[in-house]
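Note to self: the last two entries modelled the partners one at a time, which told us nothing about the interface. This time every component goes in together.
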Amino acid sequence: MIGYLLKRLAGACVVLWVIITITFGLMHAIPGGPFTQEKQLPPAVMATVEARYHLNDPLWDQYLEYVKHAAVLDLGPSYKYPGKTVNDIIAETFPVSAELGLISLCLAIGIGIPAGMAAAWYKNTRADYVLMIGATLGVSVPSFIIAALLIQLFAFTWPVLPAAMWKGPAYAVLPALALAAHPTAFIMRLTRSGILDALAQDYIRTARSRGVGEWSLLCRHALRNALLPVVSYIGPLAAALLTGSFVVETIFAIPGLGRHFVTSIYNRDYTVILGITIFYSFLIMMMNLLIDVIYPFLDPRIALKQDTKEE
Amino acid sequence: MDAREFEPIDRSERVEPYVPPQKLRERGWRQMKKNRLALWGMVIVIVMTAAAIAGPWLAPYTYADQNLVDANAWPSSAHWFGTDSLGRDLFVRVLYGARISLSIGFAASLINFFIGVIYGGIAGLAGGRTDRMLMHIVDVLYSIPMLLYVILLMVVFKPGLVNIYIALGIAYWLNMARIVRGQILSLKQQEYVLAARSCGTSTWNVLCRHMIPNCMGPIIVTMTLSIPDAIFTEAFLSFIGLGVSAPMASWGVLASEGISSIRSFPFQLVFPAVALCLTMLGFMFLGDGLRDALDPQNQKEAGR
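The predicted structure of the combined assembly is written out below.
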């Protein structure tokens, strides 16, 4: 177990290094430096600025410098906000995003799994169709459209909730709904097909013949197997919530990391783009690692292996 | 034992009637016809594609024609979907948007196809250490959130149609590579491949002429389901300002423009949004139907 963890962590470090290298390379492939603007800076100022950010050093030195700093979790200064480091920005804005993401995660799991179970249990009835149509719509409507519709409905047509900002629990309702729509729909589909598969298995028939009640059959016997695909979806789910937060936080003017990422793209604030990308990649990799580690506990048929899944 | 205890066998029962092997296309089509949702999906996809190809030729306006007198006009007989803030006809812009969004979907999935098939094909054919190394790279890439890299690529390249094709195409081929490799691995064991090889067919020809056509089912399914993903991603990119450049507009651009005027002119959001969602639904139903029809092993997965 420990050996496996160490091996995976070592692997994660290598991947992180690859990510840093790719992002660094991409960022420096951009024509024009980060200070090339329409209004030319005086050459003296330009030289000072470039010296300050080590932009005059050979690319190789800059790269080594960046990797060295990234290794001790220092992602460098922001170009657009002098005096702020990328670390500051992440520390300020990530808690907001994490809170919103966590609420959405709870919503997605709390609605998605029961709804999927209901759809599977009432398979091919009207309830099933209604639920599945909802799930399909949730997957096929982009989150910015859902967000816009929610604002229009619940903030203007029927003003019960605030349309934007981040000042209290009421402010979290609409963004969390908009962010959770996509994952909820996905979890619902996964749960439904998982339960249907599980219900067709022999062990369910055995349990039924032993006189296990229908309710505990569904909740205790079928659900456990059906949840495995849902658990392995949590890694991608984290990614979906993160990227969803770009849109949702921008629309609802929430001062989170997602909105900051989009702003830094508009501003071409390269170190921030670079830093946030690395931070997000790191988060998602850790999520995937966590899931691979807890998976065998949920499903004893799967043993930890160093090689990941075979086709 | 007495010889009379033995009964002669009735031969007529034993002989199974010869069933010619069905072609993938015929079998798939028979399955598809039973699936009404998939048929609707196909209808939507065909109608949208036809509209995208033919529509702009038939329309009396172009996507860039401005007419400030008619700005923000509500839907009428002159402008079926109304006009936008610059007086451009929204119906025509949605039709052009169909061209752009669909072309992004098709182009991205085509690039995925080429990279994925070549990569997966090589991994599956070579086997052994090469296979393990190539697939390990895929596993590593899988753990990287690709959308971030598409965003980075779009920041590095200038936002534009061709760059979106390329960025989406080179980011999302991993799934295809895995599926092709799995198929090739199982096909490699088949006798006809051995037969082809012993006839002296080159490895490349075995791959392209004999193996790829036999794993077309899962490939088509993967491609169909990757089209809505690409369209979706492009809409997202447009929203954060990295989509196609003006005056061209994809559905994503149109919808995000519509959001800014949702309170006064909701139709500017509704029409592009409906077109986008309808197409997404169409491709997803079609893809799910194709999966049931062409790729029975994979039926269980609800999504990916």
